[in-house]
Amino acid sequence: MQSDYRKHYGWNVIRRSLVHFALGKTFRILSSLTIFFVLARVLPLDEYATYVSFQAVIAIVGIITAIGIQKVLFRYLPELRATGNNLAAYRLLFGGMLVRTLVVSLLFVALIPLTPTIARTFNFEDWIWLFPWYLLVGYLRLSALWLSQCLESFLWQKESQYSLALGGAVAALLLVGFAVLGVLDLPLVVVSEAAGEATSLTVMLIGWLRKWRGDKQRGVGDPGWWRANRSRALRYGAWGFLLSQSALFYGSAPNRLAAAHFLSTADVAMLGVADNLLNLVRRFLPTRMLMSMVRPLAMARFAAEGDFRAVAALSEFVYRINVTLLTLPIVVLAVEGPTLMDWVTGGKYGNAAYLLMAFLIVLISEGTRNLVELMVQALEKNPIFFWTNVIQSASLLIALPLLPILGVWSLVIANFLGTVVANTIVIVRLRREGYGYDVNLKLFAWIVVHGATAGVAGWWVWKTTTSVILTTLVITVTYGLLLLVKPPLLDREKEIVAALLRGRSVNKKNN
What we know:
Layout: H1 2-9, H2 11-42, H3 45-64, H4 69-82, H5 86-111, H6 115-121, H7 131-153, H8 157-181, H9 186-214, H10 225-246, H11 252-262, H12 265-283, H13 286-289, H14 291-305, H15 308-344, H16 353-379, H17 382-394, H18 396-406, H19 409-432, H20 441-465, H21 468-485, H22 491-502
């Protein structure tokens, strides 16, 4: 069993996967930023607000169609792979893909007759004819993202990341071309995104089939695994379904739809700009970005060794990196936010700066929740997470009566309170059941000190020069130098990071 773990999740595999992972994510970041800048600068305010609502509907559909299959695959694919049961792993992946595709297809077809009601509820009647076409974009997007996450469970980062990066590049190039020609509007945005998502899905399917056909051990394993473990997997999947649905009313999509229904078009567009930037940050932070690496590694190691402390230590390490990276944009926005956002969006959305900063603080708390969820999944104690998801979703009820008074800020308050309360309950419950984990407060304190010092330096430069570029540069360089002098890492973590950069193992135990 250890040999299979090393073969599929050992140090050399991790290192190779990280290279593809980093390259793919870098290209995706560039494409995503290009798309954001073009749309925020070029699209009229009313079209951008409609685009925000379209995205939110697709995100809600993605949650509704998460019927537990996703959780089952993420939990058991690494376990089967790490224990040498390749036959069962591939059968589970193929079967899960078929069921998921069927469910998603049925729901998207069912949404088409509801288009008038959806358009009326979220105030985009003028674009009602375009919405069914955006459903097609959403169908392609959800299929590609879900398949990519399954491939990442095998650490097939090359096939996953490069496919998504290529699709993002296609969409970005088309949007830039239309913008340069001066013809970019919402219908052409839909055309560009459809082309990008179709490219990603097609290339990924080809890569997936090639990897499967090229695996000479794809027939090795226990053909009766599903029969023997069906009850366990279905029970886990049922809890996965409940978990996803219990979180339906928390997050980006519910926030956008609540704003679209209750607030003005200008408020929806402002929230959309802040939220789109937030989602870019969320996607490319360690708690989300590295989850495609961390989740399969944690599940495989827990299956092979049963060591909860290793999973907890990995989670705390990733979260510390998460906070370290989030601190920089928070400080930059605090010092020069409105001017910077005006510069980025062509003078249209400067008032979204402090809103984005507040949501980044909420994102720190969300990062805690993502990693606590990883531990809960490894232990298969999903009931703990279910009730706190309900609490987190119910926090939207706090925002609704405050929307006419505080506007979009009521969503920030509700999201923050809901997440903090939910996190606290999960951590306390885990500790009561004997699964506590340590948090190095001293290292977190150093992150705060570094951020505050960089902020003071940036504030002085901003007051002296009012230069966006110079101020951002000073804050970034100061913060980076402080991190080099006093990194918020344990000695053992420094060794691991250095070994990854050198491209070799620290010692044999890391295999």
